[in-house]
């Protein structure tokens, strides 16, 4: 008589799953089930400001009817006020259903439905590393200063270390930085741009020009650069026109004020809402002038007119900006927010930088702008292995 084999059941809780579909396929789930169940494994939470009370009551009932929920203040049911802030909670499948259902509802729910659809349809992008080269002497981190031939040597090192993009600028944008004449900025960067063209380094990596001056930007674009990193967020239409003329990518950064004034008591009613509205407006303006949506990158501007609380809020909620379906750049390398969390000199902020950048990538960022390329390459590869695992 054959002996019985006893198998003891075991259970463990899964951590965050980066690729739900891949996990289900490995389990052996049929293809039709993979598509259905993967959406049930993604949980979303949306903070909705000033939702009309009538809309809140409709949305609450619709959410409950499909297994989702809407967290509302106590006064909603009695209509004590005309508007309330709420939190919508549900799986990706729930949000898909609600985004269709609310299209037929009044009280602003049609607008809400379209916003929810923009989140569901958002794109994700593979992480990339952007190395920093400063062709000036007054940037806040001395380790990024390189002139002429030394800059080319550093560029080649960064390429070998795994940089996907190299961002080159000649004017400091640190708080209270001195302004620089356009011709002086161009003089500082000319030899580097010329060498990049002569040595055809642009064939090995993407080069980004960190400037908002059309004269400097065009000089770089004529020498193989293909990305414009504009800290003013496309304020000058001539910069946008250059992006169109040279089919270059354009990074739109948010900054409150100027480098000379941005840290003078920055204030927002709601930093997430205001920056989101800024991006929506700028994207619309760029597209109207001929920039393809595929050529737009967004940067929330960590430290550019933000307090520590603003910076942390943006990093923790980075996923929100994925609704624009543009790559999201994060640039917190060795910045003072690290010192505000744990007192440290600029030279000692690498660990803090890596912590911020990896958290931002986990939350939806896809380009990290950093001084330390090889360390970021290693950290990113380990992070990706953990995500795949």
What does this structure look like?
With 389 residues, this protein is α/β, with parallel strands linked by helices. The chain folds into two domains: 20-120, no CATH class; 128-388, Alpha-Beta Barrel (TIM Barrel). It is 42% helix and 15% strand. The strands form two sheets. The chain has an eight-stranded parallel barrel, surrounded by six helices. A three-stranded antiparallel beta sheet has the order 1-3-2. Helix 10 (271-288) links the parallel strand 8 (249-253) and strand 9 (296-299). Helix 1 (20-27) crosses helix 2. The radius of gyration is 24 Å and the shape is globular. The mean pLDDT is 93.
Q: How many helix segments? A: 14
- Helical proportion? 40-55%
According to CATH, the fold-level topology of the largest domain is: TIM Barrel
What share of residues are in beta strands?
Answer: 15-25%
Question: What is the average of the pLDDT values?
Answer: 93
Taking the alpha carbons of the first and last residues, their distance comes to 42 Å
What is the number of E strands? 11
What class would the helix/strand composition place it in? alpha/beta
> How does the major sheet shape up?
8 strands, parallel, barrel
Number of domains: 2
Q: Spans with pLDDT under 50 lasting ≥5 residues?
A: none
């Amino acid at each position: 008589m054959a002996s019985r084999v006893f198998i003891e059941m075991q259970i463990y809780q899964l951590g965050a799953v980066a690729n739900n579909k891949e996990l289900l396929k490995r389990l052996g789930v049929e293809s039709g089930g993979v598509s259905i169940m993967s959406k049930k494994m993604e949980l979303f939470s949306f903070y909705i400001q000033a939702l009309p009370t009538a809309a809140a009551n409709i949305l609450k009932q619709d959410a409950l009817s499909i297994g989702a929920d809407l967290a509302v203040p106590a006064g909603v049911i009695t209509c004590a006020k005309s508007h309330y802030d709420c939190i919508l909670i549900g799986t990706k499948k729930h949000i898909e259903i609600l985004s269709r259902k609310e299209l037929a509802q009044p009280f602003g729910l049609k607008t809400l439905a379209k916003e929810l659809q923009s989140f569901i349809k958002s794109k994700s992008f593979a992480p990339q590393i952007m190395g920093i080269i400063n062709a000036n002497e007054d940037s806040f981190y001395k380790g990024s200063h390189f002139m002429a031939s030394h800059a080319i040597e550093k560029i080649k090192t960064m390429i070998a270390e795994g940089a996907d993009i190299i961002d080159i600028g000649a004017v400091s944008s640190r708080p209270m930085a001195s302004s620089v004449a356009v011709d002086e900025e161009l003089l500082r960067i000319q030899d580097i741009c010329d060498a990049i063209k002569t040595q055809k380094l642009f064939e090995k990596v993407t080069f980004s020009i960190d400037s908002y001056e059309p004269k400097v930007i065009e000089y770089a674009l004529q020498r193989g650069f293909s990305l414009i990193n504009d800290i003013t967020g496309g304020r000058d239409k001539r910069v946008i026109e250059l992006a169109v003329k040279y089919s270059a990518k354009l990074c739109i950064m948010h900054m409150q004020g100027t480098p000379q004034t941005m840290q003078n008591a920055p204030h927002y009613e709601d930093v997430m809402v205001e920056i989101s509205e800024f991006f929506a407006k700028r994207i619309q303006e760029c597209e109207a002038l001929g920039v393809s949506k595929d050529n737009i990158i967004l940067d929330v501007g960590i430290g550019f007119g933000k307090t520590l609380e603003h910076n942390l809020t943006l990093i923790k909620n980075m996923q929100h900006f994925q609704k624009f379906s543009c790559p999201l750049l994060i640039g917190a390398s060795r910045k003072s927010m690290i010192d505000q969390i744990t007192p440290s000199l600029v030279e000692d902020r690498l660990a803090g930088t890596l912590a911020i950048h990896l958290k931002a990538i986990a939350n939806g960022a896809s380009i990290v702008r950093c001084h330390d390329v090889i360390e970021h390459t290693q950290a990113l590869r380990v992070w990706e292995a953990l995500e795949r695992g």
